[in-house]
Write a structure and sequence with these properties.
The protein is α+β, with helices and mostly antiparallel strands and about 400 residues long. It has 13 helices and 13 strands. A five-stranded mixed β-sheet has the order 1-7-11-10-2, with no helix packed on it.
Length: about 400
């Protein structure tokens, strides 16, 4: 068993440049593939013994990493079209980046997570002198002046209290209120298929999935957000900028690796479109954004697949977790749709639906299914393109169903 794990480790740990050379040298790649085939045969005949759990987990994580590396190279080699390969869509978090170490808590990641979030924040403000801070200077600031306890007490306790009043448990409210302000580094790690901040990502997504699936028959109202402009959808997730681009399968949409926030507050709409609320020392004011508006339509949950926004601080504000797939359903012309408050804004409305999955195997959410870390992997052919996708056990729906329904 240790030999199998070591072989997988050797294969998956090779730098991308080295693997690229192996791909170009097809005979070498065939040798690697033959080795992996032998490992699969050995695994099929293996009889699990007590004490092998850690090695089996390591083997699964290494195998997932190897699949991801090979998949990225396959996408590069496939004929380039306007299509977006479905292989990258709607994987569970453990399929994207593996699971965090068993004893790692999200609080253990706070120093690096908060430091990276602050550096991203400082870099966005050309007037902030802290944009010149080194990474170590920022870590020192977090250690001394921005620990979880200090940050929660000074910035997030009121938000936690508001969520508790709305029925959240204190721990769920704490996870969401604290980690939701660190969405940018979490998204960066997800895009890179990195284990950076894995415990924080699993904690945040777990809380949101549980909240989103706690009342499967209760559907939140339609929520809205401006597509372009300051603090818009496309400002934080570039895929929104091309949401109307059709891929080779006829699909329009994206997977957002950053949290998606929206609302249905009538104060945020005017005749010209979306009004972005801006708060400073002088008070709150509303700024009109010249932009299309996106409408998020929630639908009831299907088994372990969620499609609804998670309402947060009020009945008119909500979010979707990182790693949510959004599909464009229709586009309505300016002045033809009614916004909250009865106005008919002079902006287009892009109507989307959402899909997101539990972050880990289903039995961690009270199910008795055997899927612990990964689903079945199936190869599909669309024309002359081979596409890999994952099919989660017990959901009885393949990834393609999220596009076709």
């Amino acid at each position: 068993m240790l030999c199998m794990g070591a072989c997988l480790a050797r294969a998956s740990a090779r730098p991308d440049e080295e693997l690229t050379d192996a791909i170009r040298a097809s005979s070498g790649l065939r040798n690697e593939t033959a080795l992996l085939g032998t490992l699969v045969s050995l695994m099929e005949g293996y009889v699990a013994k007590e004490g092998d759990e850690a090695v089996l987990r390591d083997t699964l994580q290494l195998a997932q990493k190897l699949v991801g590396v090979a998949q990225r190279h396959l996408i590069v080699l496939l004929p380039q079209e306007t299509a977006t390969c479905r292989a990258g869509y709607l994987q569970t978090l453990d399929e994207l980046c593996g699971e965090p170490a068993m004893k790692t808590q999200w609080e253990d990641e706070w120093l690096e997570l908060r430091a990276e979030a602050l550096q991203m924040q400082f870099a966005c403000d050309p007037t902030d002198p802290r944009r010149h801070w080194t990474a170590e200077r920022t870590r020192t600031f977090v250690r001394e002046e921005n620990t979880i306890e200090i940050f929660q007490a000074s910035k997030r306790q009121q938000s936690i209290d508001d969520l508790v009043k709305r029925g959240w448990s204190n721990e769920d409210a704490r996870v969401y209120a604290v980690l939701s302000v660190c969405g940018a580094p979490i998204a960066r790690a997800l895009r890179a298929c990195s284990l950076d901040y894995a415990a924080s990502t699993f904690a945040l997504c777990g809380v949101l999935f549980n909240r989103g699936s706690s009342s499967p028959r209760m559907v939140p109202p339609v929520l809205y957000r401006h597509l372009r402009g300051a603090f818009s959808l496309s400002a934080t997730e570039s895929g929104w900028g091309t949401i109307e681009q059709v891929d080779g399968t006829g699909f329009c949409g994206l997977v957002s690796y950053i949290m998606t926030f929206a609302d249905c507050d009538s104060s945020n709409f005017g005749p010209l479109g979306y009004l972005r609320r801006f708060q400073d020392k002088a008070g709150a004011r509303y700024i009109a954004e010249e932009s299309d508006i996106v409408a998020f339509v929630s639908t009831p949950q299907e088994d372990t697949v969620a499609h609804a926004a998670v309402l947060t601080y009020t009945a008119s504000t909500g979010c979707f977790p990182p790693n949510t797939l959004f599909r464009l359903r229709k586009v309505q012309p300016p002045g033809s749709w009614e916004a909250p408050g009865g106005l008919f804004p002079n902006q287009r409305l892009l109507v989307v639906t959402a899909t997101y999955l539990p972050p880990v195997g289903e039995e961690r959410f009270g199910r008795s299914t055997p899927s612990k870390l990964c689903g079945d992997v199936t190869a599909l052919t669309y024309g002359d393109r081979v596409v890999l996708h994952c099919r989660l056990r017990q959901t009885h729906c393949q990834a393609t169903a999220y596009y076709e329904t």
